[in-house]
């Protein structure tokens, strides 16, 4: 079958972009960054209100802005970017045309319309229901309809991805198995289909409820909503882990240590993640203890195991690649001599460490039924998930964007020093922000509360001074991260507008196989590199010790809450 299109081979990377896919990837990534910018502006309002000494916004505005911040960041920024990653991992890495480009554009339009409609509803003021939109609290109908349209668009995007895999297979544009990065993206897309269908099962009834047409049981809502809410986080994890493998390949030429182990780890996500969603309901009186325990004390660990495997094999692959280049001295020469001046590599490495130590360990701690009671609904929870969705997913996507500026957008980056500095500022201030948020949460400061001091209330609560201190530090860390975010938007949007145009490379009418000497060849082919990474093993031991200690500290803390007699 021949379809008239063209293929551009990027002279800098050896990647090949089909004309339609290229436009779609650009459009989705660009709109994603606009949402990130907007959500970042809203973060200023949220953070300056939670800073007790400032307490900027009034309650109504705070909840409106917080609702929009949650949705614009977690849903719109991340999913637009993920659709771009899906098209990249199929059409670009497999060197084939994208399936049904017109339908992909339809998906894009639905997503744009849905996301705008949802935001308009929020800013009209009567839909401050938070990202979770638990019933019976009701938003305007267009709030739900916006989410539904967006989700239908994203679902169509996933099917375009699957269609593109079929095109590549049929037109034999790759040899052997699909590359690992594409495989990881495929698991993300499979999870996305499940997630979006669960979302439909519960958001459509909520929409009908807002129209007065039916009633939705709150317990059923919460249970099904988390099949959406939790799984959507696994889409993020599967996607950003795929990007980790991609960046290991493009920055260092690293191949996976073992294709089989990594693929199995991706499969574990598909098999176990939905069950783990019970960790969001640990404090819910409506569901039984046995169900909670089976899901979160057994099945959840299979999904955690998958992330730990990736956390071991991605740095491991980097280490093996570095050792092959001759950086073999001691345990860590490979790491010291890594390309720390390359924002793409630095961003991914900071993301891996932060995701594991800050997001991962705390997630497992919170997912333990007894310990969950110490921190449920405290600001510890956003502390944990900013470590996963911001340090993990967002920082990884920022790092990838820097790579894509010359390769996909064909522009020279306008301020490479600022880009590098941005990655470190954003990454480390987010580490700090998450840590102090978790500190405040451990002291009991609640989540989503515009005024922890209850000023003017008859029965004010006496917080320890440390709680106020921590929340002040949340404000400072948050502002630093926002500056990092502004720098990111400036560098990326500025490069697209004013960056020097780069040579677009050869354009041909037919797809060509990957050149053996392409710098990205490791990302576009199959094959393992072997397991000899003593430095990574040492890091894994540090991780294990941190894990055990942190677990112990929290059990100890729990044990002091109620005196025994
Ligand atoms: C510039 C950096 C950011 C800062 C300073 C920031 C700050 C905050 C703060 C202070 C809260 C409120 C916590 C509370 O009162 O309960 C919050 C909530 C939240 N943030 Fe961020 N954030 C940032 C970036 C992001 C990003 C990139 C994402 C997603 C990818 C994100 C997702 C969320 C979500 C989902 C909520 C919860 C909303 C809810 O409780 O319904 N944030 N953020
Ligand atoms: Cu979850």
Description:
There is one protein chain. With 565 residues, the chain is an all-alpha fold. It has helices spanning 19-50, 59-92, 101-126, 141-170, 180-210, 218-252, 259-276, 289-324, 333-336, 343-366, 369-375, 380-407, 416-442, 465-498, 534-561; strands at residues 7-9, 16-18, 506-508. The protein has a 3-stranded antiparallel β-sheet with strand order 2-1-3. Helix 7 (259-276) packs antiparallel against helix 8 (289-324), helix 10 (343-366) runs parallel beside helix 13 and helix 13 runs antiparallel to helix 14. The chain is globular and about 75 Å long. The structure holds protoporphyrin IX containing FE and copper (II) ion (CU).
Detail the topology: elements first, then pairings:
Elements: E1 7-9, E2 16-18, H1 19-50, H2 59-92, H3 101-126, H4 141-170, H5 180-210, H6 218-252, H7 259-276, H8 289-324, H9 333-336, H10 343-366, H11 369-375, H12 380-407, H13 416-442, H14 465-498, E3 506-508, H15 534-561
Antiparallel strand pairs: 1-2, 1-3
Helix pairs in contact: 1-2, 1-3, 1-14, 2-3, 2-4, 2-5, 3-4, 4-5, 5-6, 5-7, 6-7, 6-8, 6-10, 6-12, 7-8, 8-10, 8-15, 10-12, 10-13, 10-15, 12-13, 12-14, 13-14
Bound molecules: protoporphyrin IX containing FE (HEM) and copper (II) ion.
The site of copper (II) ion (CU) has 5 residues, from helix 6.
């Amino acid at each position: 079958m021949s379809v008239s299109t063209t293929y551009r081979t990027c002279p800098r990377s050896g990647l090949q972009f089909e004309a339609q896919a290229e436009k779609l990837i650009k459009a989705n990534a660009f709109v994603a960054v606009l949402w990130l910018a907007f959500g970042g502006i809203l973060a200023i309002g949220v953070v300056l209100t939670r800073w007790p000494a400032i307490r900027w916004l009034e309650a109504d505005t705070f909840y409106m802005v917080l609702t929009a911040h949650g949705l614009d960041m977690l849903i719109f920024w991340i999913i637009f970017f993920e659709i771009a990653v899906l098209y990249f991992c199929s059409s670009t890495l497999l060197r084939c045309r994208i399936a049904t480009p017109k339908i992909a554009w339809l998906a894009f339009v639905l997503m744009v319309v849905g996301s705008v409609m949802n935001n308009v509803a929020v800013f009209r003021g009567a839909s401050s229901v938070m990202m979770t939109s638990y019933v019976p609290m009701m938003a305007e109908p267009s709030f739900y309809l916006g989410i539904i349209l967006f989700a239908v668009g994203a679902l169509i995007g996933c099917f375009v991805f699957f269609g593109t895999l079929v095109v590549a297979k049929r037109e034999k544009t790759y040899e052997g198995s699909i590359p690992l990065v594409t495989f990881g993206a495929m698991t993300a897309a499979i999870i996305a289909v499940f997630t979006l269908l669960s979302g439909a099962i519960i958001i459509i009834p909520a929409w009908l409820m807002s129209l007065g047409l039916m009633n939705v049981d709150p317990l059923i809502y919460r249970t099904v909503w988390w099949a959406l809410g939790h799984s959507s986080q696994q889409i993020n994890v599967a996607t950003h882990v795929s990007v980790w493998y991609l960046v290991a390949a493009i920055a260092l030429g690293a191949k996976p240590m073992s294709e089989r182990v990594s693929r199995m780890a991706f499969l574990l996500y598909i098999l176990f993640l939905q069950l783990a969603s019970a960790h969001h309901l640990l404090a819910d009186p409506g569901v039984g203890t046995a169900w909670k325990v089976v899901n979160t004390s057994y099945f959840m660990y299979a999904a955690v195991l998958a992330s730990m495997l990736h956390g071991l094999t991605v740095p491991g692959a980097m280490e093996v690649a570095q050792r092959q280049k001759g950086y073999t001295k001691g345990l860590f020469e490979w790491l010291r001599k890594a390309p720390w001046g390359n924002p793409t590599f630095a961003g991914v490495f900071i993301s891996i460490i932060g995701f594991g130590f800050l997001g991962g360990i705390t997630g497992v701690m919170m997912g333990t039924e007894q310990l969950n009671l110490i921190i449920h609904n405290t600001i510890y929870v956003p502390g944990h998930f900013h470590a996963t969705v911001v340090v993990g997913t967002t920082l990884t996507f920022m790092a990838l964007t820097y790579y894509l500026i010359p390769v996909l957008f064909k522009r020279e980056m306008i301020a490479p020093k600022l880009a590098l500095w941005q990655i470190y500022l954003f990454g480390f201030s987010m580490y700090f922000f998450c840590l102090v948020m978790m500190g405040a949460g451990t002291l009991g400061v609640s989540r989503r509360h515009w005024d922890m001091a209850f000023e003017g209330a008859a029965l004010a609560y006496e917080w320890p001074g440390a709680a106020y201190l921590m929340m002040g530090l949340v404000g400072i860390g948050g502002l630093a991260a926002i500056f990092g975010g502004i720098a990111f938007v400036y560098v990326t949007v500025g490069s697209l507008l004013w960056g020097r145009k780069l040579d677009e490379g050869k354009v041909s009418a037919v797809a060509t196989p990957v050149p053996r000497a392409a710098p990205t060849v490791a990302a576009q082919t199959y094959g393992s590199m072997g397991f000899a990474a003593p430095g990574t093993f040492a890091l894994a031991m540090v991780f294990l010790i941190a894990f055990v200690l942190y677990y112990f500290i929290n059990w100890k803390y729990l044990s002091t809450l109620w005196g025994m007699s």
